[in-house]
Amino acid sequence: MKIIKLIFATLALMPAYLGGQTAQEFFMMGNNAYKAQDYARAKENYLESQKAGMADSDLLFNLANTHAKLGEKSQAQLAYMKALYRNPRMREAEANLAILAKDASLELPSKDGAASFCYELSEYEWTIIAFVSFWLMAIFVFVPPLYFKKSAVWTFLALACTIVMLTAIAGIYNWRTYASTAIAMSDDTPLLVSPASNAPITARMAEGQIAAVKKRFGDFMYVEAPSGKCGWAKRGKMLTVED
């Protein structure tokens, strides 16, 4: 019986080995189609690359450019933001997103203020920094009293690590907020009174408007826009950066 199951499993996987393209191959095919200005084919291949498991910033950036060429502004907006979430120092994505937002009157999350430098590192990088600085702080607080004389140096080092750790936590929080930003994917996106498809509509959002996700229930999420609009949106009508 085990042998029969193994044979069927092998036969099921054979098409992937014999005729299926890899994520990288779909990505390269998308690049070739984009260079040939066949944007519909480029989009198709980039999406196939995503389905095959590729999700890096280069793919998302190229997909965003393709959406922009096809006039799919909210999809381009979302893909640029996803690329920046994975690689915040991708200046090309940042520049293209700013141009798209200006030309299409789209909203973008604010990165201004004292915490703007937090967006120079990714959420993953801030997480590593928080982890390392926490354990260094613990070492500087608890180990020296056991083996060394009391010194202000250890206190200073522990304080410095604490400041770094708190900064890293702020960076993680900012990126979590950014990742939960929802974007209206079409004009007149309905916001509902309750998380049900037949619920009354309390407000509508224009394509490209952003909102903060406050809570989720099944396929719905409760969002609050900077303009004050709030309500339940069905997933698909609005998508978040982390979706």
Describe the structure.
- The chain has 3 domains: 2-104, Alpha Horseshoe (Serine Threonine Protein Phosphatase 5, Tetratricopeptide repeat); 116-179, no CATH class; 181-240, SH3 type barrels (Roll), CATH 2.30.30.40.
- The chain is globular, with a radius of gyration of 23 Å.
- The protein is 56% helix and 14% strand.
- Helix 4 runs antiparallel to helix 5.
- It has 9 helices and 7 strands, in the order H-H-H-H-H-H-H-H-H-E-E-E-E-E-E-E.
- It has 243 residues and is of the alpha+beta class.
- Residues 4-19 have low confidence and may be disordered.
- The longest helix has 28 residues, at 152-179.
- The chain has a 5-stranded antiparallel β-sheet.
